[in-house]
UniProtKB/TrEMBL annotation:
Pathway: Cofactor biosynthesis; thiamine diphosphate biosynthesis
Species: Streptomyces chumphonensis
Enzyme class, UniProt record, top EC level: oxidoreductase
UniProt keyword Oxidoreductase present: yes
Keyword line: Oxidoreductase, Thiamine biosynthesis
Protein name: glycine oxidase
Amino acid sequence: MHVVMVGGGVIGLVTAWRAAQRGMRVTVVDPAPGGGAARVAAGMLAAVTELHFGEERLLALNLASAAAYADFAAELTETTGHDIGYRACGTLAVALDADDRAHLRDLHALQQRCGLDARWLTGRECRRLEPMLAPGVRGGLRVDGDHQVDPRRLADALLAAGGGAGVTFRRARAERLLLAGDAGGRAVGVALDDGTELGGDAVVLAGGSESGRLAGVPDGVLPPVRPVKGQVLRLRMPETPGPPFLSRTVRAVVRGGQVYLVPRADGELVVGATSEELGWDTTVTAGGVYALLRDAHELVPGLTELPLVETRAGLRPCTPDNAPVLGPSALPGLQLATGHYRNGVLLTPVTGDALAASLATGVLPDAARPFSPLRFRSGDGASAAPPRQELPV
Ligand code: GLY
């Protein structure tokens, strides 16, 4: 079986690797494999602290992937020799004023209803954990299960793992889906921007925010994915002996916007992220950098002393229900692995396993079934899980 993977971001790469491990022949089509949103993302594995009202169904998938991460990281390191920067460091979500505290209390209540492990701390207790926090911190949530990984290292490791498992990389852009059969009833490959065509027994569309605009995909099959811009800063923490600048991820909602600080073991401090609906624009703006630094400075005042080493913007692939689109589409031969929105890095392990199983058997594993593309077909509510069914791959 030959699988054509459209997109070589972390989702396409993990799916390619897992499919190759199952004996499939896989070609990843991407002009720059290992690129994409993961080159910008902070890499929080924030199933608990990024829980949102109405996303409880997604929580189960997020938690499953978070639970798989330690073994996934160890397997990647053992296979490739790459350290992906997995840190079981935990997260502290804090409140800076009364409004933030009310918001955090609501989140804590939701976490408790969902049976999640999150402990309320006073401002003093927060600062005892993280002495660089602003003195005005009003309280916070300690979540010891929300960890981090370095998405750039993850992408590099997945490239190496795929290569080692026999995945072929075709450095070109997929321009159009090729169809065959009665009335074009089956996906059979893609046409590339170098003028060639690549045939396959199955095509997986894993193009991140671009997944919604591959030509040739019939109406009603194209995933409803749109880009949501995020601007992210990278700073460098001092290499001084003694306590670290920050020892865990620290985050807050400031004036309604999310800000988070993710400290890496190698001294990088990632500050993110804006959330902007501006189409395909990836400009880093003065306003975006200002807002991030202003909010991060309110949280950790000492941060303005640090060198600012990089500013970058990426596009999150967002769907109408903020959840990914996984598995067989309504078009035989076409499977989807996209729409991961805020959780692409977190959902990388579970997506690779689910899609490889689905490619091998035509059936999506139970944990991933609520995220079938068929939930967006007219007449199906976004909340209705599609019936279990065998679809040709
Ligand atoms: N998960 C973090 C973000 O999307 O900004």
